[in-house]
Each structure stands twice: as C-alpha cells, then as structure tokens.
Amino acid sequence: MSSSDTSSVGSVAELSTSTPPAPASRRKGNKKVRTGCITCKIRKVKCDEAKPSCQRCVKTGRVCDGYPVLRPRASRFKSPSPTPALETADELRAFDHYKSRSAFLLGGITVAGEEFWGGLVIQLTVTEPAVRHAVLALSCLHEELCKGNEAGRLHLRNGFAFSEYGKAIAAVRSWDVTRRGPESAAIPLLVCVLFICIEFLMRYEAASQLHICQGRLILSRMEQVSLDSPSMEMIRKVLVPIYARLSLASYLFATRPEPIPVHLTTGNGCTPLTFESMSDARDMMFHLLDQGLRFTTSGKHAVYNPAADPWEVQRLKATQAHILAQLSQWNTAFTFLRTTIISETAMSKATQDLLYVFYHTATIWVGSALSPCETTYDDYVSSFAAVISHASSAIAATGSLQREDAVFTFETEYLAPIYWTAAKCRHPLLRRAALRLLEREEVKRRRENLWRARELIVIAAYIIEVEEGQEQSTYYDSLGDMYGIEGYWHHEEELRVPLTQPPSLEKPDTKFSQEELVDIGQGTSFDLPLRDAPRGPVPLVQDVKAARAITNIDPGRLQAPFGISEGSRIKNTLIGSAGADGVWITTFMDPEPGMTEWSVRKTFLKVQ
C-alpha cells in the first residue's frame, strides 16, 4: 500500500477530524472537564492555553505537542457532513450513494455503521485521496449489488470502480509506516479496511485475505506507545476492533493472520468483572474469538501428530482451560450488563442475541479443539440449540427493519454459525432447524463478506444427505426451481492428506509478486482462477436431496450418536471457488480400513 499523491499530507492527528480544536475546558453534565495541550495534560499541570503553542511548555524548554482534538460521535454530529472535491458525474453519483445507503448498510447488525462508515470514513474523504478513491470504488460496487447484480465485478460502469480502486492503491504506495512512526499507521490501516470491503464485494477471496494479513501485520509490529494522541486512540478504539472481527473472515477460510498485540486489545486481553457498555462486551467477545480461533488452529496439528511433544499437549490443555474460563467470565459479565438495560430497541436486542450466538459457538470451538473425533460435538447439543435459538431471535428482531437493499454486510454475523451448526450438530431436528433458518426469506439472499447464504443452503443440505443417506426425500425437489439445483458432480483429483495431519489442505500463499501489485495499482483486479461448472458430458451422480421433513425421523436417532457413526461423518468441508453456476467443495472423511490417508473428495454443487 503506497502512493504518489500524498507527498504533502499533514499529520495523522490533523487527518482524523475536520472539526476545530476544542476549548480549554468544557462541561460534561455538572462536572467541569479540563483540557489543554497534550504535554501539560501528561505532566498533570495547568496549561496556559496559548496558541499556537503553550507558553508554559516553551519557557521550560519542552516541545508543545498541541491540543487534543475531540471527535464527536457521528450519530450526534449535527453540522453538515463534509464533501470532498468531486468533478465527474460518476464521482458525484458514487459519493451520494455511499452517504445515503452504503454507510448505513455495511455495518450490519453486529456494529452500528454510523460511527465508522458514516462518520470517520466520510470525514477523511475530504483530506485523504486514498480514502476518497477507495470510497468511490466501494460505493460503485455496492450499488451494483443493491441492484441485484450478484457478481459486482461483471457489471462495472465503464471500469469506474477499477479505476478508482487503482487510484486508491497508488495514493498509499509510498506511505512508509516504519519511517513515519507507529502513529502514522492510522490512515493505511483504515484504507486497508476499505480495500478489504472492496474485495469482499467482488468476492476475491485471495486478495481480501492479503489485505487482512497486511493490516494485521502492521498492528503486530506496533510497539506500546502513548495512547493520548487522537491517531492512536483511533487505532485502538476503532480499527483494532475491526481487525479483531475480521478474524472470522480469515481463520474460517484457513488464513492465519498475525496476532494483535495485547496492549492494543480491549482490557489488555483480560475479561473484566463487569462491562460498562454493549460495545465493550462486543469488542471483548471478538478478542476471545480471535484467541480461540488461533488456539484451535494450532491445537489441531498436535492432536493428529502421533509424535507430538507431551509437554506441548499439556500446554495446549492449559490454554484451552484458560480461554474457556475467559468465555465463562464474559458470559457472567454480559449477563450482569443486561440487567442494567432498561429499554431495548430491536437492533439492541439483535446485537445481544448475536453476541450469545458467538459465545456458544466459541465454547464449542474451543471445547472440542483437542479431540480428533467428530462424536465430540455430540456433547454440545445444548450449545447448538442455544445458537439456533439466539440466531432465530436476532433474525426475527431485525426482519422488519431490513431494507430491500440490505443484502451485503462487511461483518460476519449469523450465516457462518448457523451453517456450522447444520454441518456439525448431528441431532436431526436441530440441524434441520438451522437449515430452515438459512432458507428464510430474509436470510437466503444475504451476503456477509465472503459468506453467501444460497451457497451455504446447498452445502449444508449436501452434508446432511451424505451423513444420513436421505436419498428419497423431497427437500431439493421442492427447492429445485428456486435455486436451480439439479444435482452434483464428483471430480477426482490426487489429493493426498495423511492421517497424521488435520483433515484439511494447505492454504495457497496469498503473497503476490511486485508485477501483480503494479497491475492492480493500474486498475487491474486479480484473484486465483475461478473454477466454474464442469464442462462437457459429466455424468450426474444422483440428485442432491436432504430431508427436511421430520415425520420420517426414527425416534431412536434423537440420542447421541444420532444414528451416525464416526466413520460416516464428514470431518471437514472446505468451500472453494464459486462460479456463476455453483461452488466447489472439498470434503474429508475417515479412510477405508487399512488406508493411511484421509478420504478426500472434491464436489461441485449447483447453485443459482
């Protein structure tokens, strides 16, 4: 990320707001809050408030660090929104769409978008060329998606989005964070979030993961410095929570971003006894999710390695116990916080339900991480039930508030946990309840960053059909016209994964050559090749059918192991490239007796 037109850019503190400096003192309620120059504030002495520099600092030979700039909450900011210098009709149209629609839809349910997307980002379009060009590209793609053009990359207006995206990348190419100091990372980190959103909209998985890893790498190298400056406050309170939430868009797609330093995280990584606000509880939950996903990734390798160091296994068990204890403490603190909430809006209720969805999902992830058996998930039936119950409540609470164009959100919300419940919970009623949630009218056309509900419906139903062998059901017969599902094909490849390794494939390196980065800087997007539907006469194996009806379920299957043996269960499902007609998945199951490698099958599922 570098630039050719930011050579005259001012300090990050100046870029973080367009409001004038605050007065030396102000009243908050009946309490007088002292302000002054940053240097006097740190020294805890009275500031003489002289401009442009405090004379107390000058006379004592100190460098006056200037006056802190107070950024009002965007939702309470009543003055007119800033407007960048726009020239063409396409630029005006894109910026208007962003301000009127995109800024209020990208945040989704988990986090209100007004503060970041509708506040800080819009303010920085005035002073930062990189932000302005990225916003215009993002808005163009989002408008196409709102129109119903699912593959936004196929419907660009004269290449406008690609052109603006290339200009945004060019605008940050020369930005040297290491030379400018840790505080200067605020703008590149924010622009990187916009780039990630652009790649999400275009469904370019590899490029989006590259940007996530770049942002996390910048954070991982930030040393502990003073948090009094506005730029560091923005990094810690706004950008770090965003990158923590992006863990779900990385780890669940097999990418391993760098850890966020503890001094930048909420509560320095420790769950407090109580939460002061819903946002504090939310940020702490996603920090724990980040910890849990990193732990489960490292733990799986030791579980399947017969030569694993016993001390390493004991260390993993201690880490597992610590994270589970932190999750339990979060649940206690969050329950206490909820007792202080007097009135609730539908959105507030949905946010609480989503946090509970992630709490129960994280408990299952971490609790089952050190077991190689799929039957371990049978011990978490009550947690799976809670995931479905809270997800259903969140969907019901916001269903009436959903706009027709609210088909995409930057955040990972309930699609992934609901799909994962359908895949990993073998209770026949609960997994079908999860499948029904995915096919609800307000859910089935939804997209959450890289997750697409229509694909998840087909994949979840396929997993159920394979594990339960429900070949005579009419589930897909009834949905065939709606989703264009006619069947699936198996594609045999030499995919050899020994049993001493986790049932997965190595993630392709998401690093790109300098030539490829130059290409995208000139307006050419890139990604790994898409794999469309099989070409030519491919034999239809059988109709894809997964029973939704519960009348044919044997009551004996309502108790663990639910009539599905360990060998009949799919160990892992990798969601691959999506084309216009469907999606490739790779499944792992126990091998035939005497074999030393996982049974791996690549399958193409038709999706409309």
Automatic annotation (TrEMBL):
InterPro entries: Transcr_Regulatory_Proteins (IPR052360), Zn2-C6_fun-type_DNA-bd_sf (IPR036864), Zn2Cys6_DnaBD (IPR001138)
Domain Zn(2)-C6 fungal-type: 36-64
Low complexity composition-biased segments: 1-11
Oxidoreductase as UniProt keyword: no
Keywords carried by this UniProt record: DNA-binding, Metal-binding, Nucleus, Transcription, Transcription regulation, Zinc
Region (Disordered): 1-29
One Pfam family of this chain: Zn_clus
Superkingdom of origin organism: Eukaryota
Signal sequence, renumbered to the chain: none
MF annotations from Gene Ontology: DNA binding; DNA-binding transcription factor activity, RNA polymerase II-specific; zinc ion binding
Keyword presence, Calcium: no
Descriptive protein name: Zn(2)-C6 fungal-type domain-containing protein
